[in-house]
Give the backbone structure.
Amino acid sequence: MFVIGNGLTKFLRPGKHNYEYYDLATIAINRALDDAKISKEEIEKVYACYVYGDSCTGQKSVYSAGILTGVPIINVNNNCSTGSSGLYLAHNDIKGGLNECALVAGFEKMFTGSLRTFFPDRENPTTAIFFKN
């Protein structure tokens, strides 16, 4: 099992550029495929890793990159562990023989200002949880 290619975009300050999240993902995906020297048709599964986005953000990003081969696209959102979670899932697929080639694409378009919750009508899941015996 090997990571055979990677691709990155330059960090761009929130609010200081005109790229959409899927533009940034497309750049990184194409750079990774070029680095790996493989075609889009060789990808068997995609793990799209992001935190701030709607439920089909991964699909939009992968489709925008030209990957329309009918492969499963799994959206991964695990806050600061999102990227490593995507790598873990792809590793397990390959190690378990489910796929030979998986793409893990991480991308984000942040907003300006402090991080905030988008669901004020429910308890924030990052509040401390204490267990009692």
DSSP finds three helices and three strands in the chain. The radius of gyration is 16 Å.
